[in-house]
Design brief:
- It is built from 25 helices and 28 strands.
- The chain is an alpha/beta fold.
- The protein folds into 4 domains: 58 residues, Phosphorylase Kinase, domain 1; 281 residues, Rossmann fold (3-Layer(aba) Sandwich), CATH 3.40.50; 193 residues, 3-Layer(aba) Sandwich (Dimethylsulfoxide Reductase, domain 2), CATH 3.40.228.10; 117 residues, Barwin-like endoglucanases, CATH 2.40.40.20.
- Strands 5-4-18-17-16-6-7 form a 7-stranded mixed sheet, with helices on both faces. It has a 6-stranded mixed barrel with strand order 23-27-24-26-25-28.
- Strand 2 and strand 3 form a beta hairpin.
- Helix 4 runs parallel beside helix 22.
- The chain is globular.
- The N and C termini lie far apart (64 Å).
- The structure holds iron/sulfur cluster (SF4).
- The site of iron/sulfur cluster has 14 residues, from helix 1 and helix 8.
């Protein structure tokens, strides 16, 4: 025969799982039918996030990407809820979606439509959706699962420093002498960063780790000091530590005077947070709190790494602020190894913030409520003045609630599974059932949200699409296609743009400039870049050619800059109007749902080492089940004995809102009175939708992030029949 020799290719890309953003080399070749397949993935030795390292999830990317089982290969539509969806071609799918949305906008106004996106979309995807919602339709009802993930971190940085984004970089992991993990199980959730920390500690015996976490996670088990605080008492801990530092004179008074404001008011508040009082609130030994404060305050370089344990809380903004304030008062920032470093969960939580793809922001870290900011974006997008919405839209929890009250009629969900990940999912399922029109843009057919779709749009996924993501240290990396998408699956930006152009033809005023000319990821990125010029995240000098030539780069990267900035606020000049960082009073407030006689246990949630989110991708790799094969509720042996429960039996976990059944696992990693379950297991694996059957929809007033990490529950033997 004259079959061509199979051509092996290597494509540089970025791992699609977590916010570490590891660089990968994707190997592919064409099979006997001429179809290009991914044959292997290895760490990219040249990528500055991982220098060749990968964790278990990244190492198995080839396997998860190759498996086409359960992929959505063709658009599907249905006219009414009762009937089954039928396969259609793209033309009909796009026309129908545009027609249905246009009709709803014409009848009920633009705010009757909402978009719910994902921190796993690429920056270019996010950009088109944001322009479609705010620029074309004129609604700010566009939010994302990043609301469940990073919004308290955004609020914390903005309130303290005047701008979003961490002041730190990954190299700080190697320079830090004291590392404070707060609400972060980095050993599981950010494994490659954790490995960098382990190597740094192995080199330098002076390095000390403190972990504040109610559970003895693998990270906590390796700490020099584990503060097993009661769930939700983080603010009391940080306030108590700062009280001690004030008392001991370990503050940087010159820095506070020259570069900050508001310390006096905070200091007033701190008076009541004596170490004794604070330790009591936290349920820890006072000596441990004092030791933590000493290690932090006297350290040549203290770095905190924090994550969902602080963010996923109705007081998440205060938790972020109280921790940042420890750094500000002691000037533990702006130099190598020091700073408050919020680790992002999803691979592109940062990119979504950069394009302003959320209900509360505009493009390039601009504010919706600021008329000057709106005018700037209107000019850059050639919109008529007054087109952009002037008020924030509905954030995640409110967005699905508004389907109940009929304020929102149609929701377009892309690349996320709210019927698994939202708090109180029973209510979210009802909202989706009630909605007039639900569009689900997905690559996997098995998610808990897909059954609600009136229009199901097949998306291409990692390994098949091009664009960029921004990792936890503000570093923008290219994601590149190695193979063609299967069936009729299309890139997310393409789907959004095709619908947008159809809506534009119908809704835009005559003579309006076309908004969706950009037709490649590179052109979309160029449009996004233009909006950042002069802003704190200015990437005017960073185009695809630079990324190609010089590899991944951190922002800011202005056109005239010598290069990227690894650290921010090095000179003590902050991004507030007066250039001073701002202290805020952070009173401790307990978790929203207190335990009671009916619901006497605290349930906390977290992650497994080898799984990701609802497991739609990681669940395709058998080897990733070896570490934690089965779902479980972990309970302290004493609590189990008191209830006559034994290991392995099925238990029913109930809260005021709902219930689920899980096998019981006994473990003293949780304190008596607290139970733990991983958040990954969904309706694909359980008879229920998972832990969010019982979680509550209370949100933080400033960040609107829900309290996903704590609910009062009762646990009993599961009765059947
Ligand atoms: Fe991927 Fe995160 Fe693992 Fe790196 S640490 S390989 S980005 S999952």
């Amino acid at each position: 025969g004259h079959a061509l020799q199979p051509q092996a290719r290597t494509t540089r890309s970025t791992c699609c799982y977590c916010g570490v953003g590891c660089g990968v080399l994707v190997h592919s070749r064409s099979d006997a039918d001429g179809r290009e397949i991914i044959t292997g993935v290895e760490g990219d030795p040249a990528h500055p996030a991982n220098f060749g390292r990968l964790c278990s999830k990244g190492r198995t990317l080839a396997e998860s990407a190759r498996s086409l089982q359960g992929r959505i290969l063709q658009p599907e539509l249905r006219a009414t809820r009762g009937e089954a969806r039928r396969p259609v071609d793209w033309g009909l799918a796009l026309d129908t979606v545009a027609e249905r949305l246009a009709r709803i906008v014409e009848r009920h106004g633009p705010d009757a439509v909402a978009f719910y996106l994902s921190g796993q979309l690429l920056t270019e995807d996010y950009y088109v959706f944001n322009k479609l919602a705010k620029g074309l339709l004129g609604t700010a009802n566009i939010d994302t699962n990043s609301r469940l993930c990073m919004s308290s971190a955004v609020a914390g940085y903005k309130l303290a420093f005047g701008a979003d984004g961490p002041p730190t970089c990954y190299e700080d992991l190697e320079h830090a002498k004291t590392v404070l993990f707060a609400g972060s199980n980095a050993a599981y959730a950010h494994p490659v960063l954790f490995r960098r920390l382990e190597e740094a500690r192995a080199r330098d015996p002076q390095v000390r780790w403190i972990v504040a976490d109610p559970r003895r996670t693998d990270t906590a088990a390796m700490a020099d000091l584990h503060l097993a605080i009661q769930p939700g008492t983080d603010v009391a801990l940080f306030n108590g530590m700062l009280h001690h530092l004030v008392w001991e004179g370990l503050l940087d008074q010159d820095f506070i005077a020259a570069h900050t404001s508001g310390f006096g008011e905070l200091k007033q508040l701190l008076r009541e947070y004596t170490p004794r009082m604070s330790a009591e609130l936290c349920g820890i030994e006072v000596q441990d709190l004092v030791t933590a404060a000493e290690w932090f305050g006297r350290s040549p370089a203290a770095l905190s790494l924090y994550c969902m344990g602080l963010n996923q809380s109705a007081h998440g903004t205060d938790k972020n602020l109280a921790l940042i304030q420890l750094h500000l008062a002691t000037r533990q920032l702006g130099r190598p190894g020091a700073g408050p470093f919020s680790l992002t969960g999803q691979p592109n939580a940062m990119g979504g913030r950069e394009v302003g793809g959320m209900a509360t922001m505009l493009a390039a870290h601009r504010e919706l409520e600021d008329p000057a900011h709106r005018a700037e974006v209107e000019a850059l997008w050639s919109l008529a003045p007054g087109t952009l919405p002037a008020k924030p839209g509905l954030a995640a929890v409110e967005l699905f609630d508004a389907l109940h009250s009929d304020k929102v009629k149609a929701v377009w969900i892309a690349c996320t599974n709210p019927a698994h990940s939202m708090p109180d999912i029973g209510r979210v399922r009802e909202a989706l059932q009630r909605a007039e029109y639900v569009i689900v843009q997905e690559c996997y057919a098995g998610t808990d949200t897909v059954p609600y779709a009136d229009a199901l749009l097949p998306a291409s996924t990692w390994g098949e699409k091009d664009g960029t993501v921004t990792n936890s240290e503000r570093r923008i990396s290219r994601v590149r296609a190695a193979v063609a998408a299967p069936g009729q699956a299309k890139p997310d930006w393409w789907i959004a743009r095709e619908v947008a152009r159809r809506l534009e033809a119908r809704l835009a005023s005559p003579g309006a400039a076309p908004l969706f000319e950009a037709d490649t990821p590179e052109r979309l990125f160029d449009e996004h870049r233009a909006l950042t010029v002069g802003r704190d995240l200015d990437i005017g000098g960073l185009d695809y050619a630079v990324l190609e030539r010089e590899g991944p780069q951190q922002w800011p990267f202005p056109a005239d800059a010598a290069g990227a900035q690894a650290r921010r606020y090095v000179d003590g000049a902050f991004a507030t109007a007066d250039g001073r960082a701002r202290f805020h009073p952070t009173p401790y407030r307990p978790v929203v749902e207190q335990t009671s006689a009916r619901f006497p246990l605290r349930m906390i949630t977290g992650r497994l080492r080898d799984q990701w989110h609802g497991m739609s991708r990681s669940g395709r790799v058998p080897a990733l089940f070896a570490h934690s094969p089965d779902p479980a509720l972990r309970m302290h042996p004493e609590d189990a004995a008191r209830r006559a429960l034994v290991a392995g039996e099925l238990v029913r976990i109930a809260s005021k809102r709902g219930e689920l059944v899980l096998p019981l696992e006994l473990s003293d990693e949780v304190a008596s009175g607290t139970v733990f379950a991983a958040m990954h297991w969904s309706g694909q694996y359980l008879s229920s939708g998972g832990v969010n059957e019982v979680s509550l929809p209370a949100v933080d007033a400033r960040s609107r992030q829900p309290e996903l990490k704590h609910a009062a529950v009762r646990v009993e033997k599961a009765a059947f029949g």
